Amino acid sequence: MILETKPDFEKCMERVNAWYANELLDRPPVRFSAHNEQYNVVDDSSRWPSPKDKWFDAEYQVGKFERDIAGREFVAETFPLFWPNLGPNAYPCMLGCEVEFGDVTTWARPTARSCRELGRIRFSTDNEYFKKLECMTLLALSRCTGKYLVGYTDIHTGVDCADAFLGTERLLVEMYDDPEGVKTFIARCASHFAFVFGHFNKILRDHGQPSTTWIGIPSQESFHIPSADLSSMLSREFFREFALPSILEEVRLAGRNILHMDGRGVAGHLDDFLAIKEIDGIQWVQGVGGDKPIMQWCGLIEKIQHAGKGVVVDLEPSELDAFMERIHPRGIYLCLATNGMEEQKYIVSKLERWR
């Protein structure tokens, strides 16, 4: 692939592919953007009748991205990537869930009062969210050649999808009161994932794109980010009973899987994640407040490395020196929030000396 905006694309992909293979080329890959960076910018919404209309304005969403990358230099493994975004509950919405749209994210509105309301889960390719995401994808693909990559949307299936439909409190209560009903509900939520994932991944591959999504790590094989954020509230027993089965199904569909492990609660299930052979790497999201700084998590990161998995690590530039002293570079994929070109290039030169 040749990108005018990223002339070193092939060399960067060599580093990414080495990382997938748990090998180290000349240095670890590094992306100069923060986790959830796309949710940090609020723009004017006054021209649309409602927040949803702004989110659904495909021409605006693609055009805004193109304006944002115009004239920008993409250092190291920071790839120019547009991915169609209708919020973190896009997949539940394809199945009939309702959401409230804000300026930068969406919140699910529980529509099922019980896990026995399986009829609430209805998927159709005529669903407005499915059609709009397809529209955004095709629009971006018609304009991206030589300029940027196109990915697919954020997909949360399994227990997190059930959480969107039922609400956290109701779902947790019914895990005690009606465990078989909950398992059936979660399985129904997950039953359309293979089609949705395959559909959008095929569109990208038919247009010569690598497979990727919001995390910005491309793959020549099909790529997925499994997650189970609700597992932060589950014991090991309940995690294995309710959340793990759908994760095991998800990872069989993609050639590459990077698991999204969001915070210390989810990290309580790390041993189960590491036992899944289809998981190539883990994105460690350390959280905020007392969950920072990154150095308190070095033991967890080393455990992932010793298991032969890659680990995606967000950290502050001020933490980098101490991190490099403690951690071996093999298997590390860094994400640093800095926009200064000179600082980025200085960091890259520093990483080249990391052994």
Automatic annotation (TrEMBL):
InterPro entries: UROD/MetE-like_sf. This is Uroporphyrinogen decarboxylase (URO-D) domain-containing protein. It comes from Termitidicoccus mucosus.
